[in-house]
Amino acid sequence: MPERLGITVTKHIMETQRKIKGVSGNFSSLLSELIVAGKVIHRAVSKAGLIDVLGKTGLTNTQGEEVQKLDDFANTTIIQKMDHTGFLCAMASEEVEDIIEIDAKHPQGGKYTLAFDPLDGSSNIDANVSVGTIFSIHRKITDGKKGSLNDFLQQGKRQVCAGYIIYGSSTMLVYTVGNGVHGFTFDPSVGEFILSHPFIKTPSRGKIFSCNEGNANKWNEKTREVVDYFKAIDEDTGRPYSARYIGSLVSDFHRNLLYGGVFIYPNDQNYPNGKLRLLYEAAPLAMICKQAGGDAISDSEEILEIKPTELHQRVPLFIGSKEDVKVCRRILTSG
User: Fold this and answer.
1) pLDDT tens, 162-206?
2) Which of 2, 115, 133 is nearest to 71 (CA)?
3) So what's the pLDDT on residue 57?
4) Which positions ≥6 away from 188 have C-beta within 8 Å?
5) Contact indicator for 180, 12 with CB cutoff of 8 Å
6) H or E element in which residue 318 lies
7) Mean per-residue pLDDT over the chain, rounded
């Protein structure tokens, strides 16, 4: 039976929960509370030019990057909305060096972890470019009530849920719990996310490649060969592809998910291990992409198979339509 358009995300989560073995009401409540945090961030982003949330804080995050005011606001909002729920054993944020423990004044013993990039693409926020919140949820695997680093260092294939909220011309939630990808558009008139894109499927082959060619002189030969492939003329495979690059990962990924194509952020001379973070960006988007019929690799491995060794581990990322990623894999692993 096809999904019914117009149902709220809350109802969709509740109905989905009943179909998945081992998922409890705690998980549904956790996801619902996270969506409330997204609504708060949406409100701030939509008023960014009217309230004092534009510009930099003057601080740098654990990655050595300048912190935008909206980054800080989004990070604080998610922590404060989630730390008291009792559903989490710990959190991890791209903006915070160590795991975020649940304060003793709040309920302990949560069964899940939450890793998140509070505001991906925030360096472009002053130019009114679409930004987004990316999140990843795992089950706790260690003993005891408190969460530990090992609870976060799990393969992407073990994620319970992955998703993002994109704040653009409309605000949209896209998420998966392993049974397909669903998109919900925020209706400000009722204050709810409404199902608008049930069972999203990305085209098996796209027409778009997305990368920062300004870094081409820093790439290795294999990466240049990949990009040259998509720029070459070949009518049988629909090449050359169109170049589309916003510089906001969640925006580039969202467009390619719907239209088909490949997003490329390789390692280079400045970032020999890649720049994007495995836990907060690559793994959750890889789960979504795979569930939508696409694929995601680093320069040599399946993203969802990589076992993290550190909280802020970086990886190269080639993600998108299945046939396009297959081309990337073939070229990157050729002798």
Assistant:
1) 999 999 889 999 999 999 999 999 999 999 999 999 999 999 999
2) 133
3) 45
4) none
5) no
6) strand 317-320
7) 91
- Residue 15 dihedral angles phi and psi, to the nearest 5°: -70, -40
Q: Name the residue with tokens 């982003």.
A: 45
The letter for the amino acid at 294 is G
Vertex 259: Cα angle to 256 and 260 (nearest 5): 60
**173 close to 8: Cβ distance less than 8 angstroms:** no
* Dihedral sign for Cα atoms in the order 41, 45, 47, 51: positive
Question: What percentage of the chain carries pLDDT values higher than 90?
Answer: 80
CATH 3.40.190.80 residue ranges for the chain: 208-332
Token pair listed for 193? 């996310």
Q: Crossing angle for the helix pair 25-46 and 9-19, nearest 10 degrees?
A: 150
Question: Which CATH number describes the domain made up of 208-332?
Answer: 3.40.190.80
Correct CATH for 9-197 of 2.160.10.10, 3.90.1150.10, 3.40.50.150, 3.30.540.10: 3.30.540.10
- What number of other Cβ atoms are within 10 A of residue 309's Cβ? 8
